[in-house]
From TrEMBL:
An example Gene Ontology molecular-function term: palmitoyl hydrolase activity
Source organism: Jaculus jaculus
Gene expressing this chain: Ppt2
SUPFAM superfamilies assigned to the protein according to its UniProt record, in alphabetical order: alpha/beta-Hydrolases
PANTHER family referenced in this protein's UniProt entry, alphabetically: LYSOSOMAL THIOESTERASE PPT2, PALMITOYL-PROTEIN THIOESTERASE/DOLICHYLDIPHOSPHATASE 1
Lineage: Eukaryota, Metazoa, Chordata, Craniata, Vertebrata
Catalyzed reactions: S-hexadecanoyl-N-acetylcysteamine + H2O = N-acetylcysteamine + hexadecanoate + H(+)
EC class: hydrolase
Entry protein name: Lysosomal thioesterase PPT2
Amino acid sequence: MQVLRVPRVPCAWVLLLPFLLLIATPAAHGASYKPVIVVHGLFDSSYSFRHLLEYINETHPGTVVTVLDLFDGRESLRPLWEQVQGFQEAVKPIMEKAPQGVHLLCYSQGGLVCRALLSVMEEHNVDSFISLSSPQMGQYGDTDYLKWLFPTSMRSNLYRICYSPWGQEFSICNYWHDPHHDDLYLNASSFLALINGERDHPNATAWRKNFLRVGHLVLIGGPDDGVITPWQSSFFGFYDANETVLEMEEQLVYLRDSFGLKTLLARGAIVRCPMAGISHTNWHSNRTLYDTCIEPWLS
Ligand SMILES: *[C@@H]1O[C@H](CO)[C@@H](O)[C@H](O)[C@H]1NC(C)=O
Ligand SMILES: *[C@@H]1O[C@H](CO)[C@@H](O)[C@H](O)[C@H]1NC(C)=O
Ligand SMILES: *[C@@H]1O[C@H](CO)[C@@H](O)[C@H](O)[C@H]1NC(C)=O
Ligand SMILES: *[C@@H]1O[C@H](CO)[C@@H](O)[C@H](O)[C@H]1NC(C)=O
Ligand SMILES: *[C@@H]1O[C@H](CO)[C@@H](O)[C@H](O)[C@H]1NC(C)=O
């Protein structure tokens, strides 16, 4: 885990362990910003966020930013519930030390880990949950990742693997959403169908209540992403059985308010920030995007 305290006046740099970097500072004067916790995506690690850290340092000096170095690289293929458990233990102490609340910024697959955290953590104090190009309604697209992992599968037949108990041992199958096999998805998805409240479970009411503690849900994505398919999944849109994209407001999970989306929208708590011209691996290094869609929500 990398703990980065970004100083207004840099004072002392203490390198503790290869994986624990602490930049200590005296308390800065002026506005104090809520701590920011960053969760990375598939085959990714904290290194990808170096530009973002610079932007935050520059625009909100004194902000404590923690980029969680857990489940890096291939470990990010571990089942998502296992990752949620690990990340929960890491974010808990940060939240406890921040009575004024924290911000969660989560990229790609990490956005699903974070949404699950908001559902299962009873006492979370997340002000802004920033979902950075994250397949919130699932993924149904051929990508290099898929070809690498399941070389003989295509998106049309991957459901055979993903909707089996064996397949659900891989993170990407936890949010594989085949619009042509809805019944299998609902029955087999041990992650997405649960956090979406699409399949009933004893904790659904409690999870919904927990999720609704969030201050703002900031959704970021765009048509040139190239990986998230359909790209509207970053905004809770998804394919119907004809592969026509239905927007969030047309989705059953929204209409039934099964995990709180409709309530959040009615409260004015959902911010949608679509950005064209950004490919999947550029979301954390684009300054225009940062200024427009992220910085305003890191108060
Ligand atoms: C933060 O910004 C200051 C200058 O404004 C710079 O000296 C310092 O190295 C930066 N720290 C990081 C971690 O980027
Ligand atoms: C689910 O509910 C049970 C019983 O109400 C509770 O013990 C458990 O902690 C809950 N789990 C989660 C992840 O919320
Ligand atoms: C649903 O899943 C259970 C086990 O998880 C399996 O026994 C059952 O056959 C599945 N039903 C359908 C319709 O796929
Ligand atoms: C899909 O398209 C067919 C033919 O255009 C139509 O009859 C059917 O109602 C559509 N299904 C959905 C779910 O929109
Ligand atoms: C950054 O974002 C802007 C606005 O969407 C876009 O026009 C530009 O091409 C992006 N730059 C990169 C390097 O992705």
